[in-house]
Write a structure and sequence with these properties.
The complex is a heterodimer of chains A (about 325) and B (about 210). Chain A has a domain at about 60-230 and about 245-285: Pyruvate Kinase, Chain: A, domain 1, CATH 3.40.1380.10. Chain A is about 65% helix and about 15% strand. Chain A has 10 helices and 6 strands. In chain A, helix 1 (about 1-15) runs antiparallel to helix 10 (about 245-324), helix 3 (about 30-40) runs antiparallel to helix 4 and helix 6 (about 120-135) crosses helix 7. The radius of gyration of chain A is 29 Å and the shape is elongated. Chain A starts with a helix and ends with a helix. The relative contact order of chain A is 0.16. Chain B is α+β, with helices and mostly antiparallel strands. Helix content of chain B is about 30%, strand content about 30%. Chain B contains 4 helices and 10 strands. In chain B, the strands form 2 sheets. In chain B, strands 2-1-9-8-5 form a 5-stranded mixed beta sheet, with no helix packed on it. A 5-stranded antiparallel beta sheet of chain B has the order 4-3-6-7-10. In chain B, helix 3 runs antiparallel to helix 4. The longest helix of chain B is centred in the last third of the chain and has 22 residues, at about 185-205. The chains are: A alpha/beta (about 325), B alpha+beta (about 210). Chain A: GO terms for molecular function: proton-transporting ATP synthase activity, rotational mechanism.
């Protein structure tokens, strides 16, 4: 009956545990331990349960520590991300937002994290990138990827290897600052031909909510084309251009500056979302470890008491056999 | 169980971040404006991938700008932003003077819509009798028809925080580098250094 109860509870545990692999591994090897009880091996099964309890407790400690670390990193980077939010707003106010623009050369810049254990944000970014790729590739339009971050690279390299132009990893090794991001942006602009750049990242709304977002930056030629065609950027012609030799030179600088600003904000927001997602993943993982520890404690006590009872009944039946 | 987790995290976030930042408003400006976003985009998204929600786009996170008023507004609304902070956000001022590449440009309410590229130089914000001066590295300035001015710069320093001795030293260093530069790249870098330092110099003195 103990076995059946545990198996039932084990099955209930499975949907709650999302990312941490070690806990699943422990749970699946628990069933064989129970079977060994049936074979009449008494003290060894309490030993096995005790080992399980020790490792689950260690996991709980580790995940709690990881959550604290993520919380402190989040505090630091959230301030910077919120300060950088003013940077892309003037561009959207000037040029509008045109995610539905159809151009020949699309480049999707996917921003993701390098480390794992951060919930589902990287998979979400990759899903959105793949969907954008599907929408924007057609008979006369091509679509390429530029991947920032190890996790998205691992996922995209599996099926879209030939579409990936450029990958960059280990962005957060040095403190994220505007200079670094503008160098990266410069790299991308030099090496990739584009008409429209679509940046995919997770925007940090709150500690428990991250919204996948895509920001579109157009090349200067497309901006001119769209402003002539009217529509959202239609009023661009009414603006006087000061500085530079020609209008196209200023528009070129504008487009490059816009790309680096939007990328800077995107990288910071994604880093924030990563820490927030890691915090909630580690929090649910330590909670699950606590639940599992409770269940294991019950099993342990039950097994221990059952073995004591068995010994007692043996002694008593032995004694009564001797007497009568 | 997840509701508890969410509640716990939310209460922690409100207490921890209550003393946080000036820029709090932006994190609550989400998903209220232009809520449907770009409808063409949403349409084409739903056709190809109906199962996944379409991603949000930047315009949904922005407060919409007011339209062009019919009468001349009395004040200029300035947003002066840097990558690390928004120095001035929706601040009403009388006049702003920006260092455009074609020279110092004054912006008053009712200025013609302009896109101006900026060079390193002095930015001054005039509010009544109050003048705030910053030295900015290059950037862009947009003036819109509704008397909104957006000034974007990569770096900005209030003038009183600049050390004149360092400026002189830097200027002489870069002039020397320029004269001894061999490759095009070195020459360009040294030229930029000279330009910035001489602009700093003239900003401090002028």
């Amino acid at each position: 009956m103990a076995m059946a109860a545990l198996r039932r509870e084990g099955r209930r545990l499975v949907p709650l545990v999302s990312s941490p692999r070690p806990i699943n591994a422990i749970q699946s090897t628990l069933a064989p331990a129970e079977e060994q009880v049936g074979l009449g091996v008494r003290s060894i099964s309490t030993q096995i349960v005790r080992n399980r309890m020790k490792s689950v407790k260690n996991i709980q400690k580790i995940t709690k520590a990881m959550k604290m670390v993520a919380a402190s990193k989040l505090r630091a980077i959230q301030v910077r991300a919120e300060n950088s939010r003013g940077l892309w707003q003037p561009f959207t106010a000037l040029l509008g937002d045109t995610p539905s623009v159809s151009v020949k050369k699309n480049v999707i810049v996917t921003i993701s994290s390098d480390k794992g254990l951060c919930g589902g944000i990287n998979s979400t970014s990759v899903k959105i990138s793949r969907a954008l790729h599907k929408i924007n590739s057609g008979p006369d339009a091509e679509c390429k990827y530029v991947v920032l971050g190890e996790k998205a690279k691992a996922q995209l390299i599996r099926d879209s290897k030939k579409h990936i132009e450029l990958t960059m990893t280990e962005l957060q090794k040095n403190f994220l600052n505007y200079t670094q991001v503008s160098v990266i942006a410069d790299d991308i602009l030099k090496n990739v031909e584009y008409d429209a750049l679509r940046i995919v990242f997770n925007k940090f709304q709150s500690v428990v909510s991250f919204l996948p977002t895509t920001a579109t930056v157009l090349s200067p030629e497309v901006v001119e084309r769209e402003s002539e065609a009217g529509g959202k950027i239609g009023s661009l012609d009414s603006y006087e251009i000061e500085g530079g030799e020609t209008k196209s030179e200023v528009l070129q600088n504008l487009s490059e500056f816009q790309f680096s600003c939007v990328m800077f904000n995107g990288v910071l927001e994604n880093a924030c979302s990563e820490q927030g997602a890691r915090m909630s993943a580690m929090d649910s993982s330590s909670r699950n470890a606590g639940d599992m520890l409770d269940r294991l404690t019950l099993t342990y006590n039950r097994t221990r008491q059952a073995s004591i009872t068995t010994e007692l009944t043996e002694i008593i039946s032995g004694a009564s056999a001797l007497e009568g | 169980m997840f509701r508890q987790v969410a509640n716990r995290l939310l209460t922690r976030s409100t207490t921890t971040y209550s003393a946080a930042t000036i820029r709090r408003p932006y994190s609550t400006e989400v998903a209220t404006d232009a809520a449907a976003g770009d409808s063409d985009f949403v349409e084409s998204w739903k056709k190809v991938v109906p199962n996944i929600d379409p991603p949000k786009t930047p315009i949904q996170y922005m407060k919409p700008r007011p339209p062009t008023p019919s009468t001349l507004p009395s004040k200029l609304t300035v947003n002066f932003v840097l990558p690390y902070a928004s120095e001035l956000s929706q601040t009403e001022v009388d006049m702003v003077i920006v260092p455009a590449t074609t020279g110092q440009m004054g912006i008053l309410p009712g200025h013609v819509p302009t896109i101006a590229e900026l060079k390193p130089g002095l930015l001054s914000v005039h509010e009544g009798n109050d003048v705030k001066k910053y030295f900015i590295s290059s950037g862009f300035a947009f003036v819109h028809s509704n008397s909104y001015a957006d000034i974007l710069a990569v770096e900005a320093v209030p003038l009183d925080q600049i050390d004149p001795a360092q400026v002189q030293k830097g200027l002489s260093e870069f002039t020397q580098k320029l004269s001894s530069a061999s490759t095009e790249l070195d020459k360009a870098e040294a030229q930029i250094g000279v330009d910035v330092h001489s602009a700093l110099n003239s900003a401090l003195t002028g």
